[in-house]
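Late entry, iron/sulfur cluster complex.
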Amino acid sequence: MSNPERKYSEPGDENNRRNMGWIDLNVGHPTENYKQHGCPLGCIYCNQQSLDRDPYGEKEAGYLFQGVDSAISLNTRLMSGPKVIKEIKVDDVIKEMKSYPHYNPDSPVLIENFNDPGLDWSGAIDIAERLRREVGHDGPSIFITKMPISDRNTERMRNFKDQGGKPIVVVTYSGLPTNVEPASGKKRIDTLRKLSCQNIPTILSIRPLIEGVNLTDENLRTVAKEAGVYADKITVGGLFVYQPETINNFREAGYELGERYSKHTYFPAKVLPPGIKIRVREIMREEGVPANVHDHTSCAVAEICTTIYDDPTTDRLAHWAGGVESDFEYCATKCGANQVEVCCAASKLDQSIVIEKAEKVLRKLGYDKQVVTSATQVGLLLVKDGSLTIGELFTLAEQTGWQANNWPDKETLMYRTEQAITKDLGLPKEVVLGAVPVGQEWYIVMDGDVDGSNNELVVKWIRSRNRARIKVLNIKDLNGEDFDKCVEELTSASLNMQSREEIEFSLKEIVSKNKCDE
Ligand code: SF4
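Prediction complete; structure with ligand written out below:
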């Protein structure tokens, strides 16, 4: 139901992340579990050692969560090492899926995403089957694993597929040493082999690739020969760096991560050296591996649905969109002609139809907001006066086939910006001096170089919180001639939506207020 008053939601709100129904098994104080991994496999880079915790170390992850790139995340347990610390009955999670506003019958669903579905293959396949039968789930059921699978469960997976389910199994294997990733690589390759023999679509996920550990041509060639040959699709990924945990864990294992990783203080992004995806594509070709190597799991999933399940499906996050023009030539280096055609058809949809669909999705999420198309980027929708979370924007993209960003009003812009400055960067909110609308973007004026890196970090965090087109100006660059130059530049970027006088007035107001405050 839409609510005209609804302005903001947070990633942790029940609408986005369901976690009220967890049964806490009270297996120890959360701080005792704080350092533990998210499952018994014990990978030293496990992101659940540091992700999604409250200040007391309590895990906050949801049993339903929209905020993962490739699908809605569905979980029936949270673990600390070998111990289950929270659980929910399958009956209850299925019941909640029925009312989860992000769910659509064709949404991809990631089963047991916060630990490994292979800890209980039979239970994980049961969930997928029940979703199909009881909630009409018709989209892909994705299982991401580093575990072996028995012949019996491989057969069950095939039965699920034969009855109309769309399983896709993602096997993570990148040739890491056992002191980084103790789970047997040989058994994982066997999982890929067994599933591919039963015609279950598989993705080999070569991640994390880490400089100084497994990122060498030699290792990639071995991975290609050992595992690539069994996969339908391949994806490549970098390392999530959480400071200081990730750096310390690798140091303890005998690996000193280079500056690329240790300098990292913006944690939502994975670190992968440039050019690696292209290099992996070359190596797979040279080694005779036929599987397409994708930049994104959502693209690999879309291509499996289109070509193997014969269900034309666009990339859930519309990676073709968001540029000055769509780049289907680059898409064709990763996807076959059929898939490119499907995404290309989405790019040509009538704007008014896409907008109507988007506004309907927004009403389901509880927002009564208007949607417009970007004047500068293809396939990009802008939620007028919106401040949607990344999960909500994923839902808009999944259900319309186009990308979506916010176009916040000043109040919502400042609300999110204050979150970025104070919570993410630990700076006083006063370092933000004001904001000027320019075209469909905002320019935020900062009180100098406030992060010591030319405000590069500031830009990342502000954009991350706002999920909007935002640029940052330094007040020190708004003196004398520089001021006039800036007004000129902003006026030409304004798409005639603001006049030169309006831009000059807004900027002058910020500069003179700052002078008075000094
Ligand atoms: S055509 Fe492009 S956007 Fe679509 S799935 Fe392939 S790579 Fe992704």
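Residues 15-130+140-145 form one domain. Will revisit in the morning.
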